[in-house]
Amino acid sequence: MKFFSLNNQAPETTFKDAVIKGLAPDKGLYFPDSITPLPKEFFENIDDLSHNEIAYQAIKQFVSPEIPEDDLKAIIEDTLSFDFPVVELNKNISFLELFHGPTMAFKDVGARFMARCLGYFSKDSDEEVTVLVATSGDTGGAVANGFLGVKGVKVVILYPSGKVSDIQEKQLTTLKKNITALEVNGTFDDCQDMVKKAFLDENLTSKMKLTSANSINVARWLPQLFYFMFAYKALHKKYSNIVFSVPSGNFGNVCAGMMAQQLGLPVNHFIASNNQNNVVTRYLETKDYEPKPSVQTISNAMDVGNPSNFVRIQNIYNNDFEQLKENLSSFSYTDEETKAALKEIYNDFTYVADPHGAVGYLGAKAYIESHPDAHCVCLETAHPTKFLDIVEDVIRENVALPPQILKVMGKKKKAIAIDTYSDLKTYLLNR
Ligand SMILES: *Cc1c(COP(=O)(O)O)cnc(C)c1O
Fold it and tell me: How many helices (H) and strands (E) does the chain have?
């Protein structure tokens, strides 16, 4: 399978090269050259397939031949070593829980898959790859955990000092081995700027292989399409009109769902649920796409002013506004509405959601009002204890900490403090 750049100014390339590069040389996102739908029987017989088999069939066309069958199967088995339960609230709404991985965020699957692919590709190479990633909280932990102990890969995470939660900081800074945390005296935007500068710094890139691990990377983005197939497997016998509500920030997850649909998954509609960072909600209303600086909300993993994966979505629908609108609805909510939803979900269903899942729930409810025969699967993208203060404050109950969180609580933080880009460069050149 070849991948092309959505900016159309870079040569087509292989999966391997797209994973190692992250972004194309013309700064475009990579996209697969073709998508061949899976046979109808695959979906008819999905009950007979394990999660690993579903994942293998779904992703192999994108990854082969560069990762041979047996190696790909091993990577998938290793990546998907936890559960993806579906919890039905009522006949219209379910939560698909994507938080049972090691850092309790849905990003674990993409990060683990990408880490294993990169590990596979650097196996026979002497040249080490450095994954450089800026995080506002969740990405860093998932990437750090995903890459822990992967040979030939070093990970450097930049995070803004004092601006991630205690649990998130522990998840980033306590792993050691091939993972280094740099604590930046600044904001998330400062971290992001330093990372971008590094990728453009030929003085650095001539001396080392640098890549990124956010959802622009095809190996982090594509495996997210598994979720939608797992939910379909769990619910298709009971419900014939399945739609998905996806709490969206950079729109990688919802775009992966659309890839599953392109592969033939019988799903009728997607709902992108937004907080007040609602450039896509407004686009679908007005036809004007106007990125804005992000505003801070309680669902902070979705505080994105210019979603990086939206160009991929536009490509899937041939840049046709009407076609997109037929397949995608979008709604946006304030923090107050999100808190009220957390409370409602708890009171009505004794289910503890996190703020991102609550935004997804609100989007589902809005859609169902005009489509009462739909069954809407809300992707619950993080465990509520990652946002403990807000959740406990709203539901007025203590929430038990799961083992993944307890495990990091007592560990000792290890981070290197930096102030400027030149500190980052000095670190990278001299480590
Ligand atoms: C990253 C993240 C999102 C947003 O996912 P996108 O693929 O960027 O749209 C939603 N919820 C949580 C908890 C996340 O960490």
Answer: 20, 14
If 0-12 CB within 10 Å is exposed, 13-18 middle and 19+ buried, where does residue 203 land?
exposed
Is the CB of residue 215 below 6 angstroms from any atom belonging to ligand 1? yes
Secondary structure (3-state) at 151: coil
Q: For residues 296 and 46, which has the higher predicted lDDT (pLDDT)?
A: 46
Please give the residue that has the higher pLDDT: either 280 or 126. 280
What structural domains and CATH numbers belong to the chain?
Answer: 83-104+221-400 (3.40.50.1100)
Report which ligand 1 atom has the smallest distance to the Cα of 255: 7
Mutate to test the pocket of ligand 1, among 253, 310, 390 (most ligand atoms within 8 A of CB): 253
The dihedral sign for the CA sequence 233, 235, 241, 244: negative
Q: Which residues pair with 132 in a beta bridge?
A: 156
Among 37-51, 198-212, 307-321, 361-375, the minimum mean pLDDT is found in 198-212
Q: Is the CB of 297 under 6 A from ligand 1?
A: no
Pull the structure tokens for residue 423: 């500190």
Catalytic residue among 21, 107, 170, 339: 107
Torsion of CA 276, 215, 178, 195, to 10 degrees: -70
The DSSP result for 289-313, as a single string, is: ---------SSGGG--SS-TTHHHH
Q: Is 252 in the pocket of ligand 1 (CB under 6 A)?
A: yes
pLDDT at 137 over 80: no
Sheet holding 129-134, edge to edge: 209-211, 129-134, 153-160, 179-184, 416-418
> For residues 251 and 45, what is the distance between their CA atoms, to the nearest angstrom?
30
Q: Is the pLDDT of residue 357 over 90?
A: yes
248 lines ligand 1 (CB under 6 A): yes
Quick check: is 107 catalytic? Answer: yes
The residue whose C-alpha atom lies closest to atom 8 belonging to ligand 1 is 250
pTM of the predicted model over 0.90: yes
